[in-house]
Amino acid sequence: MSWQTYVDDHLMCDVDGQKLTSAAILGQDGSVWAQSSAFPQLKPEEITGIINDFNEPGFLAPTGLFLGSTKYMVIQGEPGAVIRGKKGSGGVTIKKTNEALIFGIYDEPMTPGQCNMVVERLGDYLYDQGL
Fold first, then answer.
1. Do the beta carbons of residue 96 and residue 72 sit within 8 Å?
2. Residue 57 near residue 85, CB atoms below 8 Å
3. Do 90 and 60 contact (CB within 8 A), yes or no?
4. Angle value at C-alpha 84, between 23 and 122, nearest 5 degrees
5. Tell me: the pLDDT tens digits for 10-40?
6. CB 3.0–4.6 Å: which of 32, 38, 77, 128 could bond 84 by disulfide?
7. Which of 130, 16, 21 is nearest to 7 (CA)?
């Protein structure tokens, strides 16, 4: 299965009538493996900040999480595994696997829980596959 298929069929799927606004799978070096059309172009320092937060939980808390210059407030995640951010009525979930970062960005009416479920389910699957 291609990486784009994972984004199109598994991340941008319908969840109780709702969908993520954008999603992507990136390598931990910041290389884009696949993404939806609306996913923001990330800057190298944004990827570095995300990796630093996975390695040192709480790293992004003072400055916030930036994705394509959009700032998210970092909220409770799972240290070393999941970063969650909130901005207004939307937010982001980032799941780390062995080799990749899985991103899901949402806005209302999708809920944070629905976004977490979609992103973390795929992330857990890829992690279990050694990816």
1. no
2. no
3. no
4. 45
5. 999 999 999 999 999 999 999 999 999 999 9
6. 77
7. 21
Of 32, 79, 37, give the one whose Cα is nearest residue 58.
Answer: 79
Question: Are 78 and 88 spatial neighbours (Cβ–Cβ below 8 Å)?
Answer: no
Amino acid, single-letter form, for residue 55 = N
What would the pLDDT profile of 74-98 be if each residue is shown by its tens digit? 998 899 999 999 999 999 999 999 9
Q: pTM score, two decimals?
A: 0.96
The alpha carbon of 8 is separated from its chain's Cα centroid by a whole number of angstroms, namely 14
Q: Cα-flanking dihedrals φ and ψ of residue 45, to 5°?
A: -70, -25
Which tokens sit at 93? 């979930």
Q: Could you tell me which of 62, 116, 118, 59 has the C-alpha nearest to residue 91?
A: 116
